């Protein structure tokens, strides 16, 4: 039986462009459920339904969208047993604590945070200049948004429950979710919960729609379709850039979270004070989620000398003794990345090979290289492995570290470990200004793998970690602005204005920028 797609509130047979089955990563065998590859017929139908939903949304208050987000968040927890069982089967990620006690509650929480932002309304950045009679605010794109989810977070970044989805909905846009092929059944179950919440909140049927897969040509046509408002994508660089080209050509905003090696610099005083402790943190971070986190520390820069040797030896023992986990998919891409690193001058000192045994697994792996090799070939030695793999660069001194920082591509994160008593302040002062422009989030004395769902979080960074350095994929309300348009009103009569920029504050709690002052007051 072929699983249906959801278009305009109807679970229906997909247009016939092929089929696929997901893999059980613990055995490498396929699941019996068969999913469709959609053609442009499904895409056109979803886009047309999304445009009809936009017209209906003009007469629906934002509180209904907040009600949907809250109902969806509650629905996730009410259906947690089925959702966790499906995600565990399709990804191999542990049900406890990862899926049930960490990721699912986080996903519900970010939906609730999006709902709170919708109710508060401060995210619209209502701006009023009484002297000129000009007023502006962020409003929906008035076109549907496409969300492409990744394989590594089946809930928190899913195309129909994750951060991009929540932000696009909070901005007031319908969403067309494109499921990841690694967990299509989990995405279908999430969509069923989402659509039930759509009905409860009284939103248009096409507020949430789902297709599973497109071929490359149709994916490019979708990305560049004139009826599409924007794209949110999380995944590998190749996939992201394949969407960016046609989207850019059509003038469609595309927000990409792609590749990142998340450099970690360990300064000399930190090594002397707690080198082995930092090695343990490094091991735990690099192997968390079997290394398949976008914030995995894939590049560690450590001074040469005895203290650096202690760190490397401790890390080697930990990586060698640790049990390799189950990957989300076949490990061939990791083997290719390791080969690329070796070809650029790195040496495998632990692991480096596929683990045989039926499932998808790759040995915990450390490579090393001297600073000179990195400076000679920074592109090759910044190859992302997306697995339990990291490259340790041995730096001769702070000059090497500064040179390495200056040669980095854009990354989601960058970390600096320094002496707790201040012995590294001079080195930190030299390194930080070079590292800071290359990373979205700078960390001190901690590994980068945690991404808190906080209004202050930046889960973004310079290219190629993302397609645009000015936006974040995590954190409300900042993430919402990606899927909104700035509307300006010049000399428009008050009764014709959106309520958020009329003289009276419509809810008494939203902050507005009135005559260059942030305030909750009415216009004087």
Give a description of the structure:
The mean pLDDT is 97. Helix 2 runs antiparallel to helix 4 and helix 2 packs across helix 6. The protein is globular, with a radius of gyration of 24 Å. It is 37% helix and 19% strand. The strands form 6 sheets. A 7-stranded mixed β-sheet has the order 16-17-18-15-14-19-20, with helices on both faces. It has a 5-stranded mixed β-sheet with strand order 21-8-7-22-23, with no helix packed on it. A 5-stranded parallel β-sheet has the order 11-10-9-12-13, sandwiched between helices. It folds into 2 domains: 231 residues, Aldehyde Dehydrogenase, Chain A, domain 1 (3-Layer(aba) Sandwich); 182 residues, 3-Layer(aba) Sandwich (Aldehyde Dehydrogenase, Chain A, domain 2), CATH 3.40.309.10. The chain is an alpha/beta fold and 524 residues long.
**CATH homologous group name of the largest domain:** Aldehyde Dehydrogenase, Chain A, domain 1
Helix/strand/pairing category: alpha/beta
Strand order of the largest sheet: 16-17-18-15-14-19-20
What share of the residues lie within helices? 25-40%
Work out the helix count.
Answer: 14
Terminus-to-terminus distance: 64 Å
Cα shape = globular
Q: Quick one: how many beta strands?
A: 23
Q: What is the CATH first-level class name of the largest domain?
A: Alpha Beta
Number of domains: 2
Report low-confidence residues grouped into runs of 5 or more.
none
Radius of gyration of CA atoms, rounded to a whole number: 24 Å
Calculate the mean pLDDT score and round it.
97
Portion in beta strands: 15-25%
Question: The CATH topology of the largest domain is what?
Answer: Aldehyde Dehydrogenase, Chain A, domain 1
